[in-house]
Amino acid sequence: MQLVMEILVSIFLLVGAFFILIGSIGMVRLPDLFMRLHAPTKSGTLGLGSFLLASMIYSAFQGRFGFAEILITLFTFITAPVSANLMAQAALHLRLRSMSGDVPETIDRPLPWQRTRRRAFHAKSKSTKDDLH
Q: What CA dihedral angle connects 51, 37, 83 and 58, to 10 degrees?
């Protein structure tokens, strides 16, 4: 039974290391903030989740329930996408452009805290819809 646990833990550690490596390569190689933001958030979360699964398996074979690992996994899967979204909204607020091309509908979109731009945006989109009919 010890051999099965070691093999399972080793597999999850290797999978986690692979995802972390891919995320770090993407962080270095991708050209702009929007692409760089995607690489570490997705692969880092999967890598950490795999490490925590390995830790839970190891602790289960030691006779201890991995409650701390479950909480860490839960908090990571909740906070990583939220923080990535906030960083992307901050980049849009600073009007950073993507090197892959200009995306005017995201640049002109009002952010949640911009009430005056939201009203102007809705008025502009309503007049555009009226022009189409």
A: 0
